[in-house]
């Protein structure tokens, strides 16, 4: 592939930049300094400049960045004009939080359908998203290539195998299980306990001081 | 500080290593190869070796790693024997998911109390954690230094200021808001929309192929 690969950490910040620039644009702001950008998204200026450098130089010294240009650029980069359909597997507390999250507001992503095994949830509509029975996954999920897993860890392997059979290409895995998939399927794993533990680890070992 | 600083990405993997080793130990396994470790935690061997190198060489060629030694080492490193109390602010769907997550099972972290503004939640007990009224935050939260924010973005700034006054040192921020805190307070930010958007971005721009 001819495209420059950008680090995953950079890719994760792109939506943050995009969201902030979108807000600025709505407020009618025409330009933004790298300092303002840095304070708003809580990313240091050096990192922002390095991130932007992966896409070519976009700012001018003493002027900062042109909001509209930058926005157009990010919109294209993030394919904001192209909608991706996503399926949510598991309508527990975390799954329900996802369904109430209004992704479309700033994003190019739509949770199109959800699946659960609980009879009282099947047939309902949560946050505008229909909930189907997990047994109907193969029938309903045609054409959807991305799934969010918010099921119990014990269910993760079985459901993952069914998603793989179904032709999924990406899984956002919120279960504590480390799932096994063929090489051509991308899995991002987020574990709430690990995130919390990492914060506590950093607090204990690298306390920030008021004098720093 | 004399300790070597380890990268944040490495710190995030430590709890994964710890959890897997703990399982192995329960199964009575005495040693583990770097390949097995790699397959189980879904981290490539080179990364595992580099991560471990920050703590000194721990493995032996052709033998692998001694599970018990490694476990003792990680337990000490992650302070598994020392309990950290955490407060959860916001008992919506995401907050409730946290309360039902049994952190103590493999961790050194305990959600000690939760806060919400909804009358029907105050005074209840979710997953063994008492829910107090958000107005009682200053009275109840004495001695707790870590908070998880699962409140609406519009509430984030006001609550953050109260937590700062209260002497908090770390915040795990799940709101889409980028909160502002003094330099001595550590904030880790996790945005569900950003995580999903990053996955979709990678799928579009860096598809993995079956031939890779």
Automatic annotation (TrEMBL), chains A, B:
Residues 79-178 form the CoA-binding domain. GO terms for biological process: negative regulation of DNA-templated transcription; response to redox state. The keyword Transmembrane does not apply. GO terms for molecular function: DNA binding; DNA-binding transcription factor activity. Keywords: Cytoplasm, DNA-binding, NAD, Repressor, Transcription, Transcription regulation. Its main location: cytoplasm. NAD(+) binds at residues 90-95. Residues 16-55 bind DNA. Homodimer. This is Redox-sensing transcriptional repressor Rex. It comes from Virgibacillus profundi. The gene is rex.
């Amino acid at each position: 592939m001819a495209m420059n690969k950008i680090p995953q950490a950079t890719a994760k910040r792109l939506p943050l930049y995009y969201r902030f620039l979108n807000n600025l644009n709505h407020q009618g702001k025409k330009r933004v300094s790298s300092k303002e950008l840095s304070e708003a998204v809580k990313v240091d200026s050096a990192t922002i400049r390095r991130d932007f450098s992966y896409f070519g130089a976009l700012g001018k010294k003493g002027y900062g960045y042109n909001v509209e240009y930058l926005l157009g650029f990010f919109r294209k980069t993030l394919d904001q004009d192209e909608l991706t359909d996503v399926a949510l597997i598991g309508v527990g507390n975390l799954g329900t939080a996802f369904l109430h999250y209004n992704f479309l507001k700033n994003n190019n992503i739509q949770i199109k359908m959800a699946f659960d095994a609980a009879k009282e949830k099947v047939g309902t509509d949560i946050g505008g998203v229909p909930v189907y029975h997990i047994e109907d996954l193969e029938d309903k999920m045609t054409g959807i290539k991305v799934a969010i897993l918010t099921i119990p860890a014990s269910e993760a392997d079985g459901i993952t195998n069914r998603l793989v059979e179904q032709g999924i290409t990406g899984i956002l895995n919120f279960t504590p299980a480390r799932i096994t998939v063929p090489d051509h399927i991308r899995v991002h794993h987020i574990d709430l306990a690990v995130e919390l533990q990492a914060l506590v680890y950093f607090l204990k070992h690298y306390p920030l001081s008021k004098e720093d």
